[in-house]
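Run Calcium voltage-gated channel auxiliary subunit alpha2delta 4 through structure prediction, thanks.
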Amino acid sequence: MVCGCSALLPLPNPRPTISTSCWIPRQPMPVAWAFVQKTSAKIPLETVKLWADTFGGDLYNTLTKYSGSLLLQKKYKDVESSLKIEEVDGLELVRKFSEDMENMLRRKVEAVQNLVEAAEEADLNHEFNESLVFDYYNSVLINERDEKGNFVELGAEFLLESNAHFSNLPVNTSISSVQLPTNVYNKDPDILNGVYMSEALNAVFVENFQRDPTLTWQYFGSATGFFRIYPGIKWTPDENGVITFDCRNRGWYIQAATSPKDIVILVDVSGSMKGLRMTIAKHTITTILDTLGENDFVNIIAYNDYVHYIEPCFKGILVQADRDNREHFKLLVEELMVKGVGVVDQALREAFQILKQFQEAKQGSLCNQAVMLISDGAVEDYEPVFEKYNWPDCKVRVFTYLIGREVSFADRMKWIACNNKGYYTQISTLADTQENVMEYLHVLSRPMVINHDHDIIWTEAYMDSKLLSSQAQSLMLLTTVAMPVFSKKNETRSHGILLGVVGSDVALRELMKLAPRYKYREGKKLKPKPNYNSVDLSEVEWEDQAESLRTAMINRETGTLSMDVKVPMDKGKRVLFLTNDYFFTDISDTPFSLGVVLSRGHGEYILLGNTSVEEGLHDLLHPDLALASDWIYCITDIDPDHRKLSQLEAVIRFLTREDADLECECCHLCDCFVTPPHQGEEDLLWGEAEQVVDMAFLGTRAGLLRSSLFVGSEKVSDRKFLTPEDEASVFTLDSFPLWYRQASEHPAGSFVFNLRWAEGPESTGEPTVVTASTAVAVTVDKKTAIAAAVGVQMKLEFLQRKFWAATRQVGQVGNSPCFPGCRPSDLDCFVIDNNGFILISKRSHEVPLGIVVNGRSASKVWGSLRTHHSLRLIFRVTMYDYQAMCKPSSHHHSAAQPLVSPISAFLTATRWLLQELVLFLLEWSVWGSWYDRGAEAHKQKKQDQLQPCDTEYPVFVYQPAIREANGIIECGPCQKVFVVQQIPNSNLLLLVTDPTCDCSIFPPVLQEATEVKYILQSSGMCARMRSQKLRRRPDSCHAFHPEENAQDCGGASDTSASLPLLLLPLCVWGLLPHLLR
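Sure, done. The structure for Calcium voltage-gated channel auxiliary subunit alpha2delta 4 is below.
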């Protein structure tokens, strides 16, 4: 069927040029119309195609003119004889990177070994002095003055200067400073002697840094609690005036001080543990959990009349003590309630059985095994349990923690520890907990200390949010190399005294610099976050369902593997479908493996040019040129004279032979020569560009970036673009710019459009800027490589004008009164990109321009298309993010708590308070006050923090093979007609729909990520938590030594309550009757 007054239009050329004058076709042909009988809607298919072709043709001509893409293509063609394209040998590349990283990491190990030797020698020559008086630079007190203007004690003047090598923090590179937690007395004799002894490390710190300027933080963490850090730095307490950082709780300290361990924690939850005792017990468990790391395995069993696992899913097993499991245990510990009578022998049997089963099955740590018994006493007969499971070899150590001030059961608790190669402590207050828990680490370290085995440990990657947390430190992934420091004195040999641990941080970005980005393409990225936990490879390359890549790298294999992957881009709003080749090998003398990813296609090839130094230097100093600031072209870290040079400055000095000592790889010289600024053309375009584009830009694989302004800098629509503030638009250490990546994965010569939001006080919150970029490909000897990507930044308004002009232009050619146009009264027209985001629409009141607001689409029209199941133009891709951060959900003790009235609850609480007040105050010590203040602040801060979680989100992708389509959507009482047409030479589509049919029954399509909720009781989630992935264990284990003194097994705590707090309960008790009248 055709329109009543038929309209005739010619079939358009692929890229027509239509004048505004009247034009009569030589051979009229009828136009095809999309028509639905239930409605009067009619959409002329040929007209829609003509609109798309006209708009695409005009746009292509404009973009090639201002971006210079065709001109650049010609320049590469002119020098084709001097170009060659090489296929990247992935295995050779990964081996070279591995060797460079091995050499770098070896230097870090040598620095730490120097510190170990110096510390042990200093201790050997130091005699303990109980009355030692010694002033040192206390990191908290330095540069602090009293009310009279004098420096406070331990707070002398300490010169601090900002240093770019140390994240621009103010430091002193000539000396170290000493930090102590709030609960450690800074003039305790043990502290003073340890600090005095470790002064010998200052000279070694400086020598190490001079020998290897790539070193960052070096430090010594003492077993007594002080932390000597180089370079010296000012340490600021938190908002409560508390320093909670304790080096002995850090992963590097724990892993260096002890071998891997399997731990079963038994906690008494009988009725006698009520009140403060249970609070102390919970804090003790939490402190123990904080001393565990990735190489350890743990479970927690609560006991009274019967034994129950605090996490039923973990019944009968041990789980890896990674951050997720530790935090999960902490939440469950807070829910523990007391009742009944404590029967410890059943709990001990359960613990020994778990440890025995895991040892026999070759699971867990395969090293140390221990039971932690936390109770206020033990009364029943427990000897038969030890006789059956642990004697005479005592392969499982038993550590006992007597909770409270009651000493009736002290002898029994100590007997248990001493007869099972463990350690006994009594914990009377919250402030006692830290020091008493740390004793077990000293016991576990004895075999290693006696044997003088200086194992070198490398931690997993971590985000050091606690170290210098009060400083404005950028998020940075680190690994730490650490070694234990022992006492070599003969008289203490059998005691196996651990003096502490020395370590040095290695920023992973320093390793990345050894693998220049221009030699390969990036894979998926890790996302640094404040409470980052090590990310498993399976959470990044999650398409590797069989975990073949993960298994090969854990087993230190060298090889290659191919995989089809989905790579998220543009903050997860878009996705690339790639076939990646993975090349991997191990890094010798470290626990690490290295992998390099090459994308099939252009990622496999690299363009090389034979350009002279003179030709390359010709435009290197031009102000429009920049090199990737984080990429390494020249080695500038070794020589102190080179450290302040930018990479561009270093390249120029190298090329001009000003500095013969510089080592550089100038892969970008050909890019400099082929891509000079076309100054004459810029001048010609400047005037007419005022209403067209703001700037043109160019980037090459070698990290060279050029930009040319066509308007004054004050008129640039998006001033952050191509600046370090906008990381997505520039070359960074771990990624290419977004516009470069999109263009390189799109057909060369075809432009990719992206909406951008201008920021600033005058910003409207709507997109105002569009970038368009395209790849320039070069083919030599039947091999094709991407030489560069070019593009322009333009105002969205220009793009809109261009489109509406094209539709009006075609409408004038139709010359018919019934010819429908892109007016809301006739048709709804949308210009969208290949991911469904709207760039142009007349219905701004319904569909905001640039629908991508916070990553979501609110388009009812586009939403109805994407939810129409019979449509095969667009398909939905579900993406997963296993490194996401979510707000913590509210946690309840029970889902079935009884309802109580407020009055009843108040009376119950009051009655309990009166009963417990005297006991509470008698047991409490003044030392606990600092903990309470800090702990409450920590809880509040923890509630405000985001937590790691898994999320899923949808991404929509247009099928590029389908150039045009039309159809009908059922929208309740009516049917909506639509036509989709590709816009040539772009990633854009023209969508035309019937405005008379309301499709609001379809909900908006949101692209927001939703948290994947796991039901703990479900078999799937439980299996996920219980699963133990293949992992590489540490190479050494030090569980026992025949010379260790097992009778050094602890004693009672000597902490005493303060006199005011002992008297306070009597006063309160006397006042209570008056207060309650």
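The longest strand covers residues 574-586.
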